[in-house]
Amino acid sequence: MERVHIFDTTLRDGEQSPGFSMHRDEKLQLAHQLERLGVDIIEAGFPIASPGDLESVRAVAGEIKVSRVAALARAKREDVDAALRALEPAAKPRLHIFLATSDLHLKHKLRIVRAEALDQITSMIEHGKKHCEEVEFSAEDASRSDLGFLLDVVEAAAQSGATIINLPDTVGYAMPQEYHYMFRAARNHIAQNYPNVIFSAHCHNDLGMAVANSLAAISAGARQVECTVNGIGERAGNASLEEIAVALHVRQGLFEASHNITLEQIYATSRLLSQITGVTVSPNKAVVGANAFAHEAGIHQDGILKNPLTYEIIVPEKVGVSSRRMVLGKHSGRNALRARLDELGYTITDAELAECYAMATEQADASKEVTDRDVISIIHIVRRNKSSVLAGDAAASAAD
Ligand code: KIV
Ligand code: ZN
Fold first, then answer.
1. Ligand 1 within 6 A of 329 CB?
2. Ligand 1: does its nearest atom lie under 6 Å from the Cβ of 301?
3. Chain segment 60-98, per-residue pLDDT in tens
4. What is the DSSP string of 334-361?
């Protein structure tokens, strides 16, 4: 098993998306939870962005001692110096420098040519390396860069001292097979001269491919993935940390790659982020959504009651969710209703079940979900009707 390092960028890429901005104390609270979760690297912010963000990164760097703390900088002197200042108190600092490498970004955004980009990359990595032992370089928009030029960039970054090279799919454009190929090519290109360089994936979700692409990079030898809690991030978000961690766990035979995430802390981390930002996850969100472990269809409920493996690939407790939910709705079956009545303390006969089921189905049609309170009142009505029928029968036979 080879180890994949989990680089969490919730506090940087996640935080810079609309609705997710966090203050210093909120960042600190989440950083402690990320450390509990077991992430290897916490990217705490982009210090040049504002004095407040520099202060937040500095505060995280001062308190987080087990996870490594990273700060982001463009390949510019003032950015790098701000990031270095923010990282001063860190026990394990990482300077993260980036520059775009696609012709589109070079021409229209940065207005420089390839040779100038190479100069900026090498000089800023060399400058950073004098003050911080661990330097990561990211080739922004790598997946839309000319592969030949990208390979030159990778080599120049390694030569200048970057020991982690990140090849982002900045706009979520790549398909898994293309992303895989790019990593293979980049690794092969420098494997002989720089065997210890770690390649990293950083994927955005514009086409819903962020997690698939991250896993494709891992299968091509990437040993770091950059991701966020609940998949938050620019536009459609980043690759979701919880989905990658659970996928590597569930399919470890396929990937043969381990990680340091304590899966049982996943749900608490997701909830804390929602609580801090006020943004909840959609009910069908993988791993942490309200429906991720809920079953309503009768056939599924029947299977789950017989053996949870029939419709669950991971038990809810493994990711910190206290229990699965059997939802009683119009698609539910009799077995689920009997099981719910049993949990509520009512042992019922087959005849009672038939009546309760008919009433519950009617209720579900009217109100979508049958709550525990509904179930209790249904069994009471059924039993009351039964005893009044029996009382009526007894009165009738007495009169006979
Ligand atoms: O998406 C991206 O390319 C980034 C880099 C700055 C790493 O966030
Ligand atoms: Zn990004």
1. no
2. no
3. 999 999 999 999 999 999 999 999 999 999 999 999 999
4. HHHHHHHHHHTT----HHHHHHHHHHHH
